[in-house]
């Protein structure tokens, strides 16, 4: 595809850490993709001023603003938006409707979350061999956007229970729904 055909958009809010913003800019620099920043804080403040949202509605607003922003840029410039959801998240509905579920194509939609991590580790090893990798994302502590779900695991705020559940999947599933490895949590995975 080529880096010149990839467009990255950083959409920070007042809750975005300098570390997160720096990681995005550094990744764009190392890979050579097109990159820009479109702050969503003014949009967020306008919604909050008009509607006074709280709780889950406030938490999901940032994701929805990002989805709307990406679709507006896509319509204006003729790009397609790639949806970031993986098979584990899609299977249990772990996404924000009109937020991170937005996209014309999901490149990892058929890849389980455990495999996404393995693919990232494989890709990072290859990049490290070329001197183009800086380990940061998987080794740092959760940001302010994340909070404990009460089970000793960290989770994004919009869905505490399901996130802990999907992060704890130690096995993979076959097309028939059978586990390929045993698990202590088998009873929680039954549909």
UniProtKB/TrEMBL annotation:
Instruction: Report whether ATP-binding shows up as a keyword of the record.
Output: yes
Q: Does the keyword Protein biosynthesis apply?
A: no
Region (Disordered), start-end ranges: 1-23, 128-150
* Catalytic activity field: deamido-NAD(+) + NH4(+) + ATP = AMP + diphosphate + NAD(+) + H(+)
The pathway it acts in is:
Cofactor biosynthesis; NAD(+) biosynthesis
Q: What is its EC number?
A: 6.3.1.5
Task: Return the GO cellular component terms, semicolon-separated.
Answer: cytoplasm
The entry's protein name is: NH(3)-dependent NAD(+) synthetase
